């Protein structure tokens, strides 16, 4: 038993070393998509598509003629006008979506199903870095709901228009910090805890691991419906995520972490290439269940290979977001 534990820890340590080396090298590579696809007949939803990486994804898709629905909770009029100006694509619309509210997610999904016969691309991009708010009105951990639970529910609720596409693609957003998780079935939805830098980092890391897990699990369940589901790591990116986290928490740990990651940060349009590539590249018509970084495949976290663990997290999440038997896959 002791030997097995030692070997398991050694294997995990070697995996982390290999992953860290590959990730660091890849982060500074070009990472540009070679996709030449025309998307004039496609409709895409980009959550959080008015700011940061989401805005860059929206621009890239719109530049290929794609109809883009910017799904966000704030005023996105300025972003919409800028995207139209930059791409000359007028097929840009805005739809209200607050991932921290299950009611908002359901209302958004119902509206989409009424107004759009099909959705070809769903980019689950929206997320937060750190919050002082612990629990949402739904009784869910605020960070986990915004970064993971919301996208999990949204993807389920949009299966009808995704299936109608005939060849839809779904992209989940993750982070290298997902490798640093401490996720268990018990802390999947923490609601009673002390808020500090360590807890904020754990919640963020766990939420990003869950997105990788979701991408992998959705891919297995939706392949027969011709829906390709993959996950991509944004890498270091020059966005407002740290600025917003600092303003939200005022935490010294967040400030320090923001400072030490500066050398790894790249332009948001570089970070957005991965999502654009997975959403558009004709070379990836049959690609599903993979993790990409800078437009190339990357190793999954080892825990993704634990089918029992992944299935437990999946079933618990179904319960937390209130999926009915008919809505489950």
Automatic annotation (TrEMBL):
The keyword Oxidoreductase applies. Pfam families: adh_short (PF00106). It comes from Henosepilachna vigintioctopunctata. The lineage of its organism: Eukaryota, Metazoa, Ecdysozoa, Arthropoda, Hexapoda. InterPro entries: NAD(P)-bd_dom_sf, SDR_fam. The keyword Transmembrane helix does not apply. GO terms for molecular function: oxidoreductase activity. This is Uncharacterized protein. Keywords: Oxidoreductase.
């Amino acid at each position: 038993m002791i030997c097995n534990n030692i070997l398991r820890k050694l294997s995990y340590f070697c995996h982390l070393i290999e992953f860290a080396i590959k990730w660091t090298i890849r982060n500074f590579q070009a990472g540009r998509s070679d996709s030449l696809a025309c998307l004039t007949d496609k409709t895409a939803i980009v959550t959080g598509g008015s700011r940061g990486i989401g805005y860059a994804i929206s621009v890239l898709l719109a530049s290929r003629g794609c109809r883009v629905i910017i799904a966000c909770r704030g005023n996105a009029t300025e972003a919409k006008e800028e995207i139209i100006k930059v791409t000359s694509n007028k097929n840009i619309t805005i739809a209200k979506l607050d991932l921290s509210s299950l009611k908002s997610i359901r209302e958004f999904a119902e509206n989409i199903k009424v107004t759009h016969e099909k959705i070809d691309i769903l980019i689950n991009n929206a997320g937060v870095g750190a919050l002082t708010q612990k629990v949402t009105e739904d009784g869910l951990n605020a960070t986990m709901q915004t970064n993971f639970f919301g996208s999990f529910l949204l993807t389920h609720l949009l299966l009808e228009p995704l299936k109608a596409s005939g060849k839809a693609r779904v992209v989940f957003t993750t982070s290298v910090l997902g490798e640093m998780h401490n996720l268990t079935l018990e802390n999947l939805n923490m609601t009673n805890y002390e808020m500090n830098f360590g807890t904020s980092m754990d919640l963020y890391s766990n939420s990003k691991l869950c997105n990788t897990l979701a991408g992998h699990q959705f891919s297995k369940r939706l392949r027969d419906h011709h829906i390709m589901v993959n996950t991509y790591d944004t890498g270091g990116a020059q966005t407002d995520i740290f600025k917003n986290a600092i303003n939200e928490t005022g935490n010294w740990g967040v400030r320090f972490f923001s400072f030490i990651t500066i050398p790894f940060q790249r332009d948001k349009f570089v970070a957005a290439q991965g999502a654009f590539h997975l959403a558009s590249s004709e070379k990836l018509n049959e690609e599903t269940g993979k993790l990409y970084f800078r437009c190339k495949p990357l190793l999954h976290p080892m825990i993704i290979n634990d089918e029992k663990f992944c299935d437990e997290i999946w079933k618990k999440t179904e319960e937390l977001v209130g999926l009915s038997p008919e809505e489950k896959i």
